[in-house]
């Protein structure tokens, strides 16, 4: 039997990168999946690839109503919701505090934290009743920036540290009915975009000159991760059979950053 046979998951930020890898792995493991994402063209591509196994919802994770609509659509399509995966995120192009103009700071902070932190809260809050009803699980994407400096700028690193706290607090609040955990990927070959206007040099993460080599050389395993390299951990943490006593924890999938 497949690990997630007969389970239903909702993945925010699931149309590309790590999110899409999780969606595709969940489908292979037998789950039905709903994907909430702001990128319509990538949602269409995903739906074309998996017309029977998933539904797509175009929406913004910073809007609670869009999250609630995604949950309602999921239950309408598949009858229930067992798993919520929060994955949508913005980067900050490594910008330090000293390079953020004072008049720009509040706007940049609001935009990044609304996606990277409030987006997760919105998703969990919208899914909470269904997850409790089904003894479900929450899995949130962290980052090695949730534990160490230097993997982003002041906004991204601070926000990812906040996600670690969010996981611990939600695990405490939602027990014993719902388990809440996280996966902490290291540098990954994805096109994660930065907050608009944060730097005139900003570009998608894996378009940065030397990004892949620098990321590989920074960790003991000496290679940059693909999105698929992380997906198995999202399966383990979503399964009440494979991780029944695990909550409030974060699994590191970062090439050995902690061993440096």
UniProtKB/TrEMBL annotation:
One matching Pfam family: adh_short_C2
Protein name: 3-phenylpropionate-dihydrodiol/cinnamic acid-dihydrodiol dehydrogenase
Family per record: Belongs to the short-chain dehydrogenases/reductases (SDR) family.
Record organism: Marinobacterium zhoushanense
Keywords for this protein: Oxidoreductase
Gene: hcaB
Family matches, as InterPro entries: NAD(P)-bd_dom_sf, Sc_DH/Rdtase_CS, SDR_fam
């Amino acid at each position: 039997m497949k690990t997630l046979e007969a389970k239903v998951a909702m993945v925010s930020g699931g149309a590309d990168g790590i999110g899409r890898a999780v969606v595709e792995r969940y489908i292979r493991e037998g789950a039905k999946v709903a994907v909430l994402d702001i990128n319509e063209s990538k949602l269409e591509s995903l739906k074309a690839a998996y017309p029977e196994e998933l539904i797509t919802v175009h929406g913004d994770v910073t809007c609670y109503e869009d999250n609630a609509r995604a949950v309602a659509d999921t239950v309408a399509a598949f009858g229930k919701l067992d798993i919520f995966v929060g994955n949508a995120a913005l980067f900050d192009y490594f910008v330090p505090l000293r390079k953020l103009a004072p008049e720009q700071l509040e706007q940049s902070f609001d935009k990044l934290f609304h996606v990277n932190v409030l987006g997760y809260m919105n998703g969990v809050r919208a899914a909470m009743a269904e997850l409790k009803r089904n003894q479900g699980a929450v899995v949130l994407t962290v980052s090695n920036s949730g534990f160490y400096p230097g993997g982003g700028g002041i906004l991204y690193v601070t926000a990812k540290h906040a996600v670690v706290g969010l996981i611990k607090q939600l695990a405490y609040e939602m027990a014993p009915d719902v388990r809440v955990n996280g996966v902490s990927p290291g540098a990954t070959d994805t096109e994660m975009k930065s907050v608009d206007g944060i730097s005139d040099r900003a570009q998608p993460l894996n378009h940065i000159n030397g990004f892949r080599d620098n990321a590989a050389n920074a960790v003991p395993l000496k290679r940059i991760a693909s999105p698929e390299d992380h997906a198995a951990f999202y399966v383990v943490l979503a399964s009440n059979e494979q991780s029944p006593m695990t909550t409030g924890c974060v699994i590191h999938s970062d090439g050995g950053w902690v061993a440096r």
